[in-house]
């Protein structure tokens, strides 16, 4: 069976990515990173239980606190309050860790090349676009070129972002199809349990389920209505 | 004055790169990484004294032990003996950390974007070619494209590998011109002091100085003759 390194934060996007990789015939080597973010422990627990769930051949956990050292961000700096979601803003949100996905993908490619894995999976999606430049298909294409040129001649590692052109709603739909245990996944930038329901991460996740007419199985402090109701036509 | 993040290992290539960056009008923000390699402490001391020497505005030190976790290498694995230099081999040497430069450059770009620095300098050179795929100009070009697409719209960070087309001898010559304090730089993969004189790192360094007819100011256990004598024509 062919191996793939899958970047698994413990949230719904990466959980669905794990199941997508399995569905495509890969054995998922979990790569979970902690980078000093407030929600590190909760995300680790979710990622680990998911690895047990799918009987992953490997769970690689790397501490990447240097990402906090290298760049300021509300995810890593206690002094910056987490903003509520602003759906109308074109600004890069304050949760942005500069060039984060390049760091994560570089680690994943190192692990893949060392293990002879044929692919690296990452769960970025199209609604990250406006905020996170390193979630765009154009970025992944350029990074693929760097991988092709920067690894050994005999190495072939494909960068797979299966949901790069999809919405979060598409991911929720695909995850429900694949039987992803969403109740074991993590949400909420604010590190609250139950999840706050109002930060950017919670807002997008709740909206995705609401658009599908499904109830998100995790607990929320509040469940504001985010979906416009027009897209529950599946 | 414009800032540049410079990847500084503490060896002669990166030391010369620091002076090159200064010569081009940049203030060098030092980024020094320790990744579990045997020579970590010695390299740190050399990098730090160099930062003091040039009055660097910043010395960023990040522990990147995860590179050892992610990939096996003789630089990070005590059980793999360091090979003597094999100048005739086309094989990727066992000191290779898979996709290492992509990891280092990603960190440097994160730091540069967070600080508003305009460039990232790395001291790779042409004689790394046969062994290290991620030292080639083609790799740096592809990585530049990933940087352009993966950072904020208003961010411009140029990847500068000033010696990518040069030999180690060229670097030694340029360093002597720029007044690089080579006596404060580190060499030797074997973590010996004096340097062994026979590992790949020592062999290339000694050869570079011998070709210029100059004496390398650091101490060596032995000083084999590596230069063919035909190229001391400068």
Task: Summarize this structure as a short list of keywords or feature phrases.
homodimer; 234 residues; alpha/beta; Rossmann fold; 5 strands; 36% helix; 12% strand; globular
Number of helical elements of chain A: 7
The tally of beta strands of chain A, per DSSP, is 5
The Rg value of chain A, from CA coordinates, equals: 17 Å
How helical, in percent, are the residues of chain A?
25-40%
**Average of the residue pLDDT scores of chain A:** 85
CATH superfamily of chain A: HUPs
Strand order of the largest sheet of chain A: 3-2-1-4-5
Distance between the termini of chain A: 35 Å
Q: Largest interface, per-chain counts?
A: A-B, 43 and 43 residues
> How many structural domains does the protein architecture of chain A include?
1
**CATH top-level class of chain A:** Alpha Beta
Query: What sequence of helices (H) and strands (E) makes up the elements of chain A?
Result: EHEHEHHEHEHH
